[in-house]
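Need a sequence for this fold. Nothing fancy.
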């Protein structure tokens, strides 16, 4: 019987034999690969006594090494893992149930890790190499991937995978998690249907994309929606007339870069009712603002910021990256284009909350005027869990779109 400490040596040996035995001149199916694996393990069993669990383990790991994501496959398949962080072949960390921990799995070498990265990237028609060492991609299950290679990465190939649940998180789930209340969800649903332009801000990992996806499900199903993303993550299921577009990097084969700015401009010719931009992080902010100011009410987007006010300042800077305009003109565009900013945060107990909902009042005395309508207020802490509630701090001032939509609810 092969000892457990020797099983890894057997796996490495069989992996090399398997890769040498694959016929790369033809397109081998998964079934062909499984047959090749079975024959390898059968021959190995004749030399060494392998138990049934050991044979099953080797079969699974060998298949993962050539057809899946090698040692990462079990982590990607684990529904409780939301983030996988690979800092070189020997240092793999995961976020599971909101806690960061080190995983015992490791790659045999940096080359094996880079092979997995190339497999992921090529499946998205993207390229990563020494001349272009940074890439964003996605897995077939929709997980977001970022990879960084040498010479930028100093401690080996770096891979970060943000895993999304197979079933998209809806507003009901966010309410159950305590991210917001049912009352605020219903309030936002009416504003979405009334075509208010909503911008979602927050830090890394605060749940901006998840919240945008949940909010998008309030859009009436008879509208035409266009989504624009760097790497397609949104899962809007109940809109039949939807166009999904994704950016493309330039590559050595002569394919030119297609940016979010290009896609926004193109989307204006597609007769959209609403445009949803996954995230603005650069000069495309000017194109997004022009969309919001030219009749595409009800559009939405997200951006990184520490507060609602910081988001406005970042938008100003991003617009200046795309076009040189006087600051007053930029602020007027933002003030007239965005109706609400929903700010999300991940507080110290690792939970995600709606921390603030602010309305843009307009432009006065050279500045954008805002006021808070809802705000999360802490009341204490118990067993490591932050206690608090979202309280109403103001009223919605601009109700023209509500009236146009036939909403006269006193709750607004």
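Here you go.
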């Amino acid at each position: 019987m092969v000892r457990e400490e020797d099983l890894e040596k057997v796996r490495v040996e069989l992996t090399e034999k398997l890769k040498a035995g694959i016929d790369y001149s033809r397109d081998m199916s998964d079934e062909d690969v499984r047959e090749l694996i079975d024959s390898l393990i059968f021959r190995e069993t004749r030399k060494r006594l392998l138990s049934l669990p050991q044979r099953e383990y080797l079969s699974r790991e060998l298949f993962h090494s050539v057809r899946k994501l090698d040692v990462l496959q079990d982590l990607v398949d684990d529904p409780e893992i939301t983030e996988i962080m690979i800092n070189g072949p020997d240092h793999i960390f995961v976020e599971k149930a909101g806690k960061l921990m080190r995983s015992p799995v490791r790659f045999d070498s940096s080359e094996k890790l880079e092979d997995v990265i190339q497999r992921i990237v090529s499946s998205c028609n993207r390229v990563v190499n020494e001349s272009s060492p940074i890439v964003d991609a996605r897995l077939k299950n929709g997980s977001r991937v970022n990879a960084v290679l040498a010479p930028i990465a100093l401690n080996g190939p770096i891979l970060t995978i943000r895993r999304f649940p197979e079933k998209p998180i809806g507003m009901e789930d966010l309410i159950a998690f305590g991210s917001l209340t049912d009352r605020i969800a219903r309030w936002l649903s009416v504003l979405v249907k009334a075509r208010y332009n909503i911008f979602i801000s927050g830090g890394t990992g605060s749940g901006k994309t998840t919240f945008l996806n949940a909010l998008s499900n309030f859009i009436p199903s008879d509208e035409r929606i266009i989504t624009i993303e760097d790497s397609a993550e949104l899962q809007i299921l109940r809109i039949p007339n939807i166009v999904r577009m994704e950016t493309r990097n330039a590559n050595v084969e002569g394919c030119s870069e297609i940016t979010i700015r290009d896609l926004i401009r193109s989307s204006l010719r597609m007769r959209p009712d609403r445009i949803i931009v996954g995230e603005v992080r650069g000069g495309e902010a000017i194109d997004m603002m022009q969309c919001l100011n030219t009749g595409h009410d009800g559009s939405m987007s997200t951006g990184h910021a520490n507060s609602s006010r910081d988001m406005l300042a970042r938008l100003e800077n991003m617009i200046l990256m795309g076009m040189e305009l006087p600051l007053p003109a930029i602020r007027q565009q933002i003030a007239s284009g965005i109706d609400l900013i929903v700010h999300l945060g991940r507080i110290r107990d690792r939970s995600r909350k709606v921390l603030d909902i602010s309305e843009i009042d307009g432009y006065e005395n050279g500045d954008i005027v805002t006021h808070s309508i809802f705000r999360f207020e802490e009341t204490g802490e118990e067993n490591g869990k932050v206690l608090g509630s979202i309280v109403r701090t103001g009223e919605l001032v601009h109700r023209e779109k509500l009236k146009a939509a036939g909403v006269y609810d006193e709750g607004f």
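For context: DSSP finds 13 helices and 15 strands in the chain.
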